[in-house]
Amino acid sequence: MNPAYVKPLLTCLFVAGIFLFSGMQSAVAQRKTTEELNQIRAALVSPSQKGIDIDTLTEQEMQSATLQQEGTKGYILKNAAGITVRTLFDTDNDGQLDQWGFYKDGVEVYRDLDTDGDKIADQMRWINTGGTRWGVDTNKDGVIDSWKVISPEEVSEEVTLALATRDVNRFLRVALTSEEAKSLQCGAEMTQKLEAVVAQQQQAFQQAVQDIPLSADAQWVQFSALKPATIPAGTGGIAKDVTVYYNAVTAINDNGSSVYILLGSLVRLGDVWKIIEAPKPYTSENPPSVFTPEQSGGEAIPPEIQEKITEIQGLEEKLGATPQADRTPIYDRIIVLRLEVAMLYSSNKYKDTVNRDKWLRDLADFIYTAVTVDGYSTGISKLQTISKSMKDSNNHEVAAYMQFRTVEATYIAAQGGSASGAGIAYTNRIDGLKQLVSDFPDTTTAAQVQLELIDGYLMSNQLDEAREAAQAILSSHPNTLMAEKAAGFLSRMDAVGKEFPFQGTSSTGSAINVNQYKGKIVLLYFWASWSDPSGTEAAAMKRIQALYERDGLSIIGVNMDETAEAMQAYVTQHATKWPNIHEPGGQDSRPAVAAGVNVPPFFILIDKDGKVVNNQLLTPEDVDRAVFSFIRGE
């Protein structure tokens, strides 16, 4: 049943504080009563959106299911194996369920949210392995009206579903609008061109339905494109950076037949990607997209290289329609072609080392993905061979990146075994990263690895090693963002017992300064909405705030989201009450860099005199213990 029409049975029980399954007996002990089964049926809600792959329960399986109350938070429905199937929560403590979680194999993949308290879902989020989409249903009719977050891959899936169902409105929801075209600030000529295309979108989509006759059972398979390109401000009248995909293609499985469609250009607007043109059947003579490298000021791709790129694109599209066991020859051929493109760019004819290295790095990413996602078993040895070749030719930057991808691919491929095996794999990974730093100490990759090792050293309390890694970054890469992060880390490490002059700006522009909190115990809380999708961390921090506020504790949030909108949505959803610093840059924002914080959550405890008490708290549990001990004077 759709959570837009929330279960009155569960809601009434929740408000009244009645729960009939407390200490529920197992199905083996006795069969459930009709009332118990009705409550389980009520909890087994359906998502507001169709086509979501989630677990459910048959009538027979309901006999063995358990419905557990989580205090005043809500309910958790589990199957006979104890695996969560649904969660129904009251996140704002108003006595009404407002969040419905849907699970696949024990992982929450989708969530319906009621953000205005009328018991009807108005926001929809695909999470974890379900994807990244975040939709808004303004008029509460069960149809998403706009997207807060959607990736290019998910846009291509929406276009596929729109074609299969002949739903022009579904297409228009992911298509660029006239206002959005103006907001790109692409100059008068390009804006006029974009608006002309936008004006024809509805008619062009109807033509696409005729030209691409998909059945209602058609399924999206794969999005294919070269890496997105950023067209910098100042190019061809563009006033600000624009990030686009050129000539993107989508593969579709229609009842066993492979269908390819040309999406053309996609453009990014914050956390949302939009398609510019209506889709077309994919052919070898497709017209160019609205955005092309030539139109955006870049140089045309040489024909002999373009020929290889076209073959690569065709093979990558073929991968999605090929059984996994038969993909190795396709991967082998793509690797050869990508190497050939890189070598052409480095030849005397072109002497373009920038594009050469870009293709080689992209090749490392491609092989890494093939190994870790598709089980391409020979990929690791190929990475090792190419890395050695680059080292022998003194291309140490690319060689280091290849070696980094080798270490990471080896580690991921070793997962899934015993606990002891996983421990050995992790140790081998750390040893591999240390060896990379030793082999290529002056490369950018080595400095980035050193930053990652710092976090690992801190978790294992290897403080001297962490300091040495930071000093190495400062020596090898001065005047870089990595050096700023290393300097921030060292400054934080040296701050215990000293004043910590930390300040920042809220999303509304107001200044927040630790000095304003003299006489209070201050907890700097570095956080991001993407690191706490379930809201567990928010709940723990709200509990800590309530527990120690009377003792003078004040929390100052330092948000590391990319956008203020993402931060505010989280704050609203989880009803957090502390002030938040938010400056542009996400994990590379000025406040995070100044404190040397790379990954949230992270906490710094400061006493009433403004001096640091503890500078490396990693979890809310750490915070709880540290604040309790500090207040007791331990």
Could you walk me through the main structural features you see in this protein, from its secondary elements to its overall organization?
There is one protein chain. By secondary structure, this protein is an alpha+beta fold. The chain is 42% helix and 18% strand. Strands 1-2-3-4-5-6-7-8 form an 8-stranded antiparallel sheet, covered by helices on one side. Strands 9, 10, 11, 12, 13 and 14 form a 6-stranded antiparallel sheet that branches. A 5-stranded mixed sheet has the order 19-18-17-20-21, with helices on one face. Helix 14 (419-439) packs across helix 15. Residues 4-8, 16-29 and 294-298 have low confidence and may be disordered.
Measured distance between first and last alpha carbons: 54 Å
Shape: globular
Enumerate the strands of the largest sheet in spatial order, edge to edge or round the barrel. Answer: 1-2-3-4-5-6-7-8
**Uncertain residue segments:** 4-8, 16-29, 294-298
Report the portion of residues in β strands. Answer: 15-25%
Number of continuous helical runs: 21
* SS class: alpha+beta
Q: Helix share of residues? A: 40-55%
Roughly how many Å is the radius of gyration?
27 Å
Averaged pLDDT: 87
Major sheet description: 8 strands, antiparallel
How many beta-strand runs? 21
